[in-house]
Request: fold
Amino acid sequence: MPSFELIFNILVALTFLAYWVVVFIILYHLTRFGIGVQPKRLAAIFLLGSVVLFCISIIVYLNVNTNPLLNIRPW
Amino acid sequence: MVNKLLSILRDSPNSFEGQEADEKVVMLLRKHIFVVLIALVGFALASFVPLIVLIIFATFIIKLGLLSLVIFISSLWYLAIWLAVFRYLTMYTLNTFIITDRRIIDRDQYGFFNQKVSELHTDRIQDVTVHTNGVIETILHFGNIVVQTAASEREFVFHQIPEPEKVKDAIMQIVHSRMSKATTR
Reply:
């Protein structure tokens, strides 16, 4: 049976993957279908913010301690 | 090279898919920014949720040693809000009304893969009406524009457009110039 930590890591990896898929879809729509300057500016801000937020999440993720979760007993 | 790349953020042309060779874009319209601000307030309120949870359950979280996990889940919450905000802004940006010197194009983006494009040739326009409803619309100068076509066809309604009077004048000007061109031929 896979360990709790492994399951947690897989779930986090899938979440980050889903995040980048949605980022790509938004960027694609803004740059491909956007008319004028505004969509391009939005796309640039969005890409920059997405990278920054992702880096922050990764740093926070590296400091996560999942062991206390295993010690929680509902009874 | 970098300057050339960045120039797309300063002077990107208002060209669009399906534009004819000598067709000129007269106006590119989107809904008034006030519509976006209301939604952004909702997202701003949602960003306080992790903070509120942390304050309410602070002793419980610290006692069980879950602080790092809660901070990580909060970071995921902010990633989700970031995506939701830009999904909304993308839909707002892609919902456009393009007025060219020969037609009006209404692009409605309902979702990432759900789009409707309607167009109306200016020679079919019969009447243009501006409808401003309520205090906010009156103060901030935005409203609906109803473009009436021939009786058998449906009408075009552009919702919450900034400075609708100017838009109406521009449409009527295009219609008159097209009509005068047609009569001189």
